[in-house]
Amino acid sequence: MANEHLGDRVGRLRRLADLTQEALAERAGVSADVVRKLEQKRKHSARLPTLHALAKGLGVEVTALLGDPPGIPSNGEAEPPALVAVRRAIVPPLFAPPPEPSGAERLTPALLRSEIEEAWTLYHSADFGRLLETLPDIIADSRLASAVGDNAERAVGQAALAKSLQLAGHLSIRLGKTDLALSALERALAAAREAADPLLPAMVCNSVAWAYQRQNRLDDALRLAVHAADRVERSRVHTAEGVRVRGGLLMSAATSSARSGDYDTANDMMRTAERAAGRLATLPPPVNGKLVSVFSRSSVRIERVRLSVQHGRPEEALRLARGMRLAADTPISWRTWLLLDVARAHADVGNAREAVKSLEKLHRLAPAWMRHHTLAVAIVGDLWSGPSRPPGLRRLAELLGVAD
Fold this sequence. Notes:
Number of strands: 0
Distance between the termini: 17 Å
Radius of gyration: 21 Å
Structural class: mainly alpha
């Protein structure tokens, strides 16, 4: 369950693995005191490197500790029809008839691109319900476009198919379906290699690296991100698109390093990415920015705040976040991550009032995202069990189901 306490998950999975608390601690490389405090609910959350270590010791994906997002449980029950439709669009049935366009006529490349851009906007706004409804038709339209016309037209269709399947992979990750995500992303990569855009395979590789991170395959994620970034650098694509794709891969590599416990290497990578982001001001902006990797000075700083919080450096996180001016095109999803990390940092330094203010701002900005963030539940749970309950905390606790 999404609101199940982390300590209950650790204890249940530890018993299933037939491990004592001490044996789990040894296998995970953490102190037995951490395991005890979690299971006794004296700790309500843990740093991501600790979660990855515990997941490795338990032999499970890190998502098993974070919990399934609300709405799409992995509890053996039948999946909702909308998710089944997305699954069928990602992996078409064998011996099925050729795809048909969703409208009366085949979509033009411009209209198809517009559909895909709007779908990505729904994703970044956490409007997963609408996205589940519209995505199957977009994938079907893209698949049709990739199969008809001359070579140039099919290449455009393959690019559309790659971006729609990449989006299906991202949505699947958000819904806790990492195996389905990898199925979508493998097909996205195959389509990207048939498209005319040399940067598209690297963008999909970044998404695959994220799926690997969610499965606790941190070494695989790191190698893939570094390999793809090197490929982009060797291709000498001196455009804003090239800088953004390579920069996004560097941030992904840094995240994998940080979650493996190597904060210094991760910090060096993030500083390199920040220098790369500075080049964007000297280059013409991308033609289709919504379909290129999210990368800017703002996104790099947001990620640096996140890594500082995850490694127990709340003062550094607050310093990095102080006075930050976000670019106008920073997606809502990234803005919510920043607010969550700032709330976590305030909670870690004992400033419950400011933590609640950040969470309230998050709820005003994107209430749907709050319901999909297990970190929000953990922060509110920590604050609720703390020594003081500032104004606004009860409403948040009731909203996320952690109130007494």
